[in-house]
């Protein structure tokens, strides 16, 4: 239960928080940037429109002065727009100047702020139309601009199709007397030219405004799309990192569980080894007592000889198993004395001599003395004994065991070969696993003990099959 809880506590939450907060930041940044750019675009448009309006106003001023004021003064001596002839002449000049330039209203005020000319004749003579901008033009001689719009810039963004005249630019400009050609008036005095009246006109800039709004939407669209892509990329990277993290965590947990398991096994092994150790001595007494009883019973031709023999055999087998188990579970630390492996092998051969003869197995010794290593004579003896014993057990009805030994490039190598059936594929794979055996009375601890001993001598063991049967190769660092 604990483990299940642990595996569910994966850091996906962190990734979620990170990706959502990054989305919020990206969207906010996008909005701020696009609003700023849109405002900039609107201002640029307005400046352009104002420049254009100013140019137009100057041109109207110029045309009116050249084509109306001067000729009229020459012809009539004074300006009087109430006279139809003069008015018509001015109208003609104005109309031809603004033709095709989207000018909506155009009025000229005199010094009494009265409309003295207008495209809309019904406004003639009115004074209430003049605002502060007209005063500024008449009194200070300064032009000004004003945006007249029914829609706020914010709502303008959402009105898809704006009515014409929704956004209008009004320009108020002082009409001045132009300096005569060839006169030497400088810039400064030009400002003090007499003011003839105030010109006021409006232009429809709705279409340009709409263009700006489309541009604004395009900008928002593009930045939204790019931030979405960025977000997806970020989310992908975070997810991936997170998954890697989770994998690593799972791996670690699995490793910990394995460690826990092997610790448990190790402590179990220690307990069992403790029990086995306690069993060994009484078992030895049982075994030797049974042996003694067996001898007496055989001598006396006792009918219970067979039962005693069975007790003796089983006690022997059990003590072998317990001994093997203890050798495996409680390996001794090897001594580090100079040992000639040839001598140890000779000892093994000597001990097994009668057994070999009984089974009709020949032992071929192909080594010379001087296979020097640093190690523990007893442990090495036990290892070789196990290997040769296995070969002996594998061969039914005679055969040959050869032991080759040679020392080369600082190593001593021993090769044990027999003429038995060899390792089965399964045995080859599992022979070093403790308790793997194919024999009825085997413990499956022989080769694991050999492997332990060889490893404790910094050596290597390899199992295989030779031409005839099994081949066990041991390699030790030379002394
Ligand atoms: N010389 C050999 N020839 C064929 N098989 C072998 C040989 N030596 C070992 N084996 C196989 O390896 C297994 C494990 O051997 P071992 O660890 O010594 O345990 P045990 O001898 O108690 O079975 C044996 O049961 C046998 O199947
Ligand atoms: Mg064995």
What spatial order of strands do you see in the largest sheet? 2-1-5-4-3
Low-confidence stretches: 1-9
Q: How many structural domains does the protein architecture include?
A: 2
**Main β-sheet, in a few words?**
5 strands, antiparallel
CATH superfamily membership of the largest domain: PAS domain
Strand content: 15-25%
Number of DSSP helical runs: 12
Shape: rod-shaped
CATH topology of the largest domain: Beta-Lactamase
Percent helix range? 55-70%
Class derived from helix and strand content: alpha+beta
| Second rung of CATH, namely the architecture of the largest domain | 2-Layer Sandwich
Rg over alpha carbons: 57 Å
Average pLDDT value?
88
Total number of strands: 12
Topology order in helix (H) and strand (E) letters: HHHEEHEHEHEHHEHEEHEEHHEE
User: How widely separated are the two ends?
Assistant: 54 Å
The level-1 CATH class of the largest domain:
Alpha Beta
Ligand list: adenosine-5'-diphosphate, magnesium ion
What does the secondary structure layout of this molecule look like, with pairings?
Layout: H1 2-8, H2 12-76, H3 84-98, E1 103-109, E2 115-118, H4 132-140, E3 144-149, H5 153-156, E4 167-176, H6 187-190, E5 195-204, H7 206-300, H8 305-329, E6 337-340, H9 341-359, E7 361-366, E8 372-375, H10 377-394, E9 399-408, E10 411-418, H11 425-430, H12 446-456, E11 460-465, E12 470-477
Parallel strand pairs: 7-9
Antiparallel strand pairs: 1-2, 1-5, 3-4, 4-5, 6-8, 9-10, 10-12, 11-12
Bound molecules: adenosine-5'-diphosphate and magnesium ion.
